[in-house]
Amino acid sequence: MSAASTSPPVRRARRKEARPGELLEAALELFVDKGFAATRVEEVAARAGVSKGTLFLYFPSKEELFKAVVRETIAGRFTEWNDEIQSFEGDTASLVRDLMHSWWERVGQTQAAGITKLVMSEASLFPEIASFYQHEVITPGHQLIRRVLQRGIDRREFRPMDLDHAVYSLIAPMIFLIMWKHSLAPCCPRDESIDPLRFIDSQASLLLEGMQLRPAA
Amino acid sequence: MSAASTSPPVRRARRKEARPGELLEAALELFVDKGFAATRVEEVAARAGVSKGTLFLYFPSKEELFKAVVRETIAGRFTEWNDEIQSFEGDTASLVRDLMHSWWERVGQTQAAGITKLVMSEASLFPEIASFYQHEVITPGHQLIRRVLQRGIDRREFRPMDLDHAVYSLIAPMIFLIMWKHSLAPCCPRDESIDPLRFIDSQASLLLEGMQLRPAA
Amino acid sequence: MSAASTSPPVRRARRKEARPGELLEAALELFVDKGFAATRVEEVAARAGVSKGTLFLYFPSKEELFKAVVRETIAGRFTEWNDEIQSFEGDTASLVRDLMHSWWERVGQTQAAGITKLVMSEASLFPEIASFYQHEVITPGHQLIRRVLQRGIDRREFRPMDLDHAVYSLIAPMIFLIMWKHSLAPCCPRDESIDPLRFIDSQASLLLEGMQLRPAA
Amino acid sequence: MSAASTSPPVRRARRKEARPGELLEAALELFVDKGFAATRVEEVAARAGVSKGTLFLYFPSKEELFKAVVRETIAGRFTEWNDEIQSFEGDTASLVRDLMHSWWERVGQTQAAGITKLVMSEASLFPEIASFYQHEVITPGHQLIRRVLQRGIDRREFRPMDLDHAVYSLIAPMIFLIMWKHSLAPCCPRDESIDPLRFIDSQASLLLEGMQLRPAA
DNA sequence: CATGAATGAGACTTCATTCAT
DNA sequence: TATGAATGAAGTCTCATTCAT
Q1: Do residue A180 and residue A121 come from a single domain?
Q2: Is the CB of B52 within 7 Å of strand E?
Q3: The domain spanning residue C107 has which CATH number?
Q4: Distance (Å) from the alpha carbon of A22 to chain B's nearest alpha carbon
Q5: Cys bridge to D26: B190, C119, D48, D198, which one at CB 3.0-4.6 A?
Q6: DSSP-assigned states of every residue in A53-98
Q7: In terms of domains, do D130 and D194 share one?
Q8: Cβ contact C35–D183 (<8 Å)
Q9: Covered bases, chain E (protein CB within 7 Å)
Q10: Does A216 reside within a domain?
Q11: Boundaries of domain holding D59
């Protein structure tokens, strides 16, 4: 950082430290856009404002760059969410709805969804990535949802149920939305395209209805 | 096939007829395994026991080979399914359940599902494939489900609804299963893995419950 | 020929003998159209109504096929012309004009010109063809023109001159017309295209004027 | 270029500048020798002392490489020639003779002529090259000759005439010489070969005689 | 640290030629 | 004799990776 020296050196020093981050950012965008195979390292470098050679100074190969992108990008966002859950005071059905909405806002409609799409698409080619993602995202996410459902059961709002199973029911519409949005949808613009929020809402209603202890009575 | 020539299998001639099938089979396996871009035509040919050149005798390009695989593997199924629907005599809820089960048996758990995964993964890179798939698979599938739902409405079993929306609700769990099975699942074998049939069943129940016109009153 | 047996065998017998001719004819057309390299033997065979394999029964290679075409197509047309010259009775200037016109009609505007173009185009890649053509066509043509000019000199119509040189002057516009017609002209249709007959006429006039022994005086 | 670093020639940097020229030179030789289709880019690269990939660093395709060769070899000459015409002060007949001589020296007897031969030979197979050549060389050449003839008419040296037609008369002997020299001639070295300069001279004389407005009267 | 020129393996595709039938 | 399925060398072009500067 070397504070207030003349500007050029400062910029250089700052850049030097920023390099990996800039490269990862550029790589993220391109990987999400075009997938692993179709992304050229030269383009990544260009977008990060450095030369191809420089990229290889920081990442020993395209594959490692890819792994780094995934690792870097999906670092634990779950603490925040966990806190929100813990401090939530309403009924669990509302909590579920809230969570699904905020998922859409914070993930589904952002670039983060691109990462999920990317990982799912390339997982079979990069088992390591897949298991990393599983460990780092899937499992924590799973746990988070589990905790929410447990809260509902504990508070006698939800009937007892197979938690794992229920979790997948909640995840499914989100994965579906992501894949749809990032694969077929962009290529084949149609009228019959999905309204994501409405879709999420209706899925939530159906699922909650099925979970709730005595819908009426 | 070629009629009743019981004579010793004319090797060259028989091969001519067998070739496309062998190539298609090899291609299916490799495409499912490695995706479209990462599959090399030479490897497809090798696995089918022929040379690179021979493949191009039967399919003019890698892309056409892929389309042929799709046609062979998926597209042809819809007439069969349509027939089954038309001749079905029970209530529509059972029909929906039946269809989802047979989907799992005929597509979901077979290599055909790998093709769907592949298309969703690489759609953005090969727009022509994406639109081919949309045209050849997605749209017919959409229509098929629509018809089933309409049947339910016509017979006063289902309440009136936004059909497109409902179709997506039915598709979502299938897409989810496919993506799950072909991306994260194979790399991270866990106990908490999904039991597909049970998942399909429970999704069906939820959805049907939401659709039915007051089962009682 | 086996005369009057039943028709099928006759046809087969006749075809068998006709094969090489049909192949040569087909090859001629295609070579003229597309040149040597761009002509595919399969297309030649198809146009002759036989299979690729059959072609190689008659000609051991594409190159030999090409040579055969040249041999067959341009073999001695010169005797006819030589006779015409010998029996011509008018003045030599008219003879020259006549010859140039009949060249245009019999060669320049026919497929034969395509062969010339072809040979000149591919000569450097097939020296053997070139020397064959030189021997079989160029030299006889050269001699023919030479004889005509000598006739003019002998009859005191033309002034004495370097015959070789004069021959080239007469050949030049023909070669030019052929090359123009078969290369740039077809690709770039313009208004400023050449009227071949008028061009030949004016060239003839210029050349004859230069050759004649005292146009006036 | 890179400023005034008088230091020992920076090898890598200097090469960067030299590459295109070296490649162009190698390409010119090979194109002239073997034609467009038969020249392999790998061989061009090898002759320039670089690898296949390097060539594509400088020229995006074989066709663009060829165009660059044409631009370098021929197309650039016209401004020079136009200047010479404009500053010429003698009579137009002399100008025509001068031009034809300098054409022989700068084009006809150099490798540039080989390019013209190549284009005429392969035009039908590579329409884009043909039209490029038409645009870049034929048309400018045509215009140049036209201007010269117009000068003669304007100065009352030449009689009025159909300019397009006259242009072709002037072009014809050059095309003929090129085709002769690069097709039949090299394969069949004879005594009766053409003396190009003498041929040009005599053609010029004939044509000028035909054009001049009564040399005496 | 950074550059970017250079590499070369490898991708898809074409087609003359062979050979079992 | 005729076929046509099969081959495999060759061609153009791409791009991850290296390394001299």
Answers
A1: yes
A2: yes
A3: 1.10.357.10
A4: 25
A5: D48
A6: HHHHHH-SSHHHHHHHHHHHHT---HHHHHHHHHH--S-HHHHHHH
A7: yes
A8: no
A9: 1-21
A10: no
A11: 11-66
